[in-house]
Design goal:
Number of strands: 17
Oligomer: single chain
Strand content: 35-45%
Distance between the termini: 37 Å
Helix content: 10-25%
Shape: globular
Number of domains: 1
Length: 297
């Protein structure tokens, strides 16, 4: 099992979550508990489009399949990602932070940075590694639960139960203009497994990371995000800026370094001469994340 960290003389990143940190989840088997000891996320945003790379270490109290629900502001392109992207990005951070002028000062708070329409339409379906992904436009929030129940029935789940709180959260997303959802089915066992990363690319006028979808879970969580943008961001209309910790001083990386992280992120960011790279952390009780992480200049 691969793990990642950013180290600049001392450990800067430790990703430890007691429950889901990015998606809502519905186990196929009742009373099965899901554990997420580690989560990795990287965001590249150019002002109009975002690449979101997600990977998690997961286990269940018993063998089961799990349906994960991820809301997005527009229709995404979904593809298999690579753990190497995380490894390369953190290696670059390490190298910069080990320079004397960039001594780490972790934990700082961010500053100025006619017929009834069907409830959903599946526009993408593909197995990616252990994933079975459906990208769906949800047209009717009131019937979202019915649509999911029918979806799960096709997966062999006889009596699926959609938590009322999850239904309310999803309807809130739809009212806010978030009509697209990614449904991802993964198979879990009591053994911790690193799930192959998935990459989501979608249009958005703000950097976006979903947090409200996790509110139906319990316990505390710590979410670490590697963030790559042309400039530092200072406007946070969603989750209050005080809830976002800056793990180390932002570093400036070259176009050559960016290309070594990801060719697609290099193309997304316009082949600029330099980019700003840093790690954010959002931590606390899962129930306290009643707003998503939204940021812009």
């Amino acid at each position: 099992m691969k793990r990642w960290s950013a180290v600049g003389g001392a450990a800067l990143v430790c990703c430890c979550a007691a429950a889901w940190a990015d998606r809502g989840s519905i186990p196929f088997r009742p009373n099965v508990k899901i554990f997420e000891p580690n989560q990795r996320a990287m965001i590249a945003w150019n002002g109009t489009e975002e690449i979101l790379l997600l990977s998690t270490d997961l286990r269940a109290s018993a063998e089961t399949k799990v349906l994960e629900v991820l809301p997005l502001p527009s229709e995404p392109k979904v593809k298999k990602g690579s753990l190497k992207t995380f490894e390369t990005a953190t290696a670059i951070i390490n190298r910069h932070l080990q320079r004397p002028k960039n001594l780490a000062r972790g934990g700082r708070s961010l500053g100025a940075e006619d017929a009834r329409a069907p409830a959903g339409m599946v526009t993408f379906h593909k197995k990616i590694g252990p994933h079975e992904v459906s990208v769906t436009k949800v047209l009717d929030g009131a019937r979202f639960a019915t649509w999911v129940e029918q979806y799960l029935a096709k997966q062999g789940v006889a009596k699926a139960v959609i938590p009322e709180k999850l239904r309310a959260i999803v309807e809130g997303y739809i009212r806010g203009g978030f009509g697209w959802f990614v449904f991802d089915v993964v198979s879990l066992s009591p053994k911790v497994t690193t799930i192959e990363p998935l990459q989501y690319r979608f249009a958005t006028t703000s950097l976006f990371y979903p947090l409200r979808i996790t509110m139906l879970e319990e316990g505390d969580t710590s979410i670490d995000l590697i963030v790559l943008t042309p400039k530092l961001l200072s406007t946070f209309p969603g989750l209050p800026i005080r809830r976002v910790g800056l793990k180390h001083p932002p570093i400036t990386i070259s176009a050559e370094e960016l290309r070594s992280i990801s060719d697609e992120m290099y193309e997304l960011l316009g082949r600029r001469a330099s980019m700003r790279l840093r790690i954010w952390q959002c931590a606390g009780p899962i129930a306290s994340f009643d707003q998503d992480l939204i940021a812009r200049e």
